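Predict the structure of Tetratricopeptide repeat protein 38.
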Amino acid sequence: MATDLRGNPLSCSAAAARRLDVAIDKFHAYQADPVAEIDALLAEEPDCVMGHALRTGILATTTDKAFDAELRASLAAAERLVPRANARERAYVAAARQWADGDLSGATETWGRIAIDHPADLAAVQLAQLGDYFLGQSQMIRDRVARVLPRWNRDMPGHGYLLGMHAFGLEECGDYAQAEATGREAVACNAQDGWAIHAVAHVMEMQGRASEGAAFMTETAAGWSPDSLFAFHNWWHVALFRIDQGDIAGALRLFDERISAGGFGQALEAIDGSALLWRLWVLGHDVGDRWSRLAQPWASRISDGIYAFNDVHAMMTFVATGDRHAQREVIATLERAAAGRGTNAMMSRDVGLPLARGIAAFGKGDFASAVARILPLRGIANRFGGSHAQRDVLSWTLCEAAIRAGDARLSEAMVAERLAMKEGSPVAQGWAARARALARPIAA
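Done. Here is the predicted structure for Tetratricopeptide repeat protein 38.
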């Protein structure tokens, strides 16, 4: 029986195992194209169960129905080979089936169990952590990694990647000092570890360290930017830092040159594009015709209804472009999803649908209604996934809506939140000045 480079059992040949090692390493670094590596392997050894199972896991965690046909083809091939698979490989196939059937929570737990049984299985740890991220499970983003850390040492291949994953989990749990130290240690192990670099960026974003963050990302860009499948997201973080530095032109340049570089061919790319432009549009900045670059990618996914997080970002685009018909279609998609079964039904029902309606109300200028719909979601927004930095768009929108609605008390409260986190932010200071202007009549 063959094993991978960390000793995990495989039912394929030793030669195929070495090819898988290359693909998995690219998956960990988000460099080049691990799926292309797996495809080349499967062209020569179509009976490699782990090749099909890993391919399915990678495609599943794009949360993009555009890859659904490929995902299901890989899953069917993997399931045909289950009789010859070992227990670990069968668990991978089972997780992929759960995800494809809409049970994101079940799939995540299955990958997590694989990691418990095989602590050196870094791919299982990564897939489980990605599942936790898409589920908004901050504590588990950290603890999936913490469970296996005692079984690792610095000499094991991929130890730096494990540190980078842990850094992100620590950041999502608010342990910013340890997260930054662990993330920087991971980057020292491998300058191409885009996930670890992004974990440090998250720390600086949450602490309002915009100048440091922009400098750190620029200094490390040579490592994570070439041939990276994750570069668009790291550039998105740089753009957020630019906004918090008051450099709106710089943020828009990054949208033009970096964030939109892939043509928004993936839902994850379109999410970042919409999230950036929405932040600027809400503040009243002119973003030109840039929304048009996102309208078609979202229009082609408008009826997918597989992940409420996607649907809400599609709504941002259609609200900003004034496309009322598309807005109604997004609402209809979320209503169908909310009435269905599976993990996304909960996400759509609890957060996606009311948030999309709140965003639509903002677009109509009904700011009081936007406040009424978005405010109750603040405490449960994690239920529809993403990171703290991504979900900050709720607070961002709510702060602006409260001020425009003339709600002096809520504006004061929301501004207090922003200043506690980002006292030096020009955006926060601008909101503070406007909130004070609303409060003067109350004081008088």
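The two ends are 81 Å apart (CA to CA).
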